[in-house]
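Example S7 (structure tokens).
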């Protein structure tokens, strides 16, 4: 396999990692792919179709990452709105035990 096709295969594998939410593996794989790409010289003319396919996969990866980032922001924003309820529960617990039954009667 030529190095350009190898980069495409790695990017396709990263697309799968992103779709499955395997972020640590995705980060490591992307770093390795960037490292490999940096060792290559200019692409030969015959690699044009492979590089065009690689650009499409890169766009899909970017779109997936942007979507997941937005999802994470929404989730984190939701955590902030729940703080009032948590504070209410904490205040209720701080009051000490309550006697619900009058055992002195």
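Recovered sequence:
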């Amino acid at each position: 396999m030529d190095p350009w096709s190898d980069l495409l295969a790695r990017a396709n594998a990263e697309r799968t990692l992103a779709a499955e939410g395997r972020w640590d593996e995705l980060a490591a794989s992307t770093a390795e792919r960037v490292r490999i790409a940096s060792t290559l010289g200019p692409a030969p003319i015959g690699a044009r179709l492979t590089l065009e396919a690689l650009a499409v996969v890169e766009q899909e990866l970017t779109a997936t990452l942007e979507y997941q980032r937005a999802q994470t922001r929404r989730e984190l924003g939701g955590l902030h709105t729940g703080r009032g309820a948590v504070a209410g529960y904490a205040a209720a617990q701080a009051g000490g035990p309550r006697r619900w039954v009058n055992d002195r009667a």
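Notes on this example. The helical segments are 3-19, 23-39, 48-81, 83-94.
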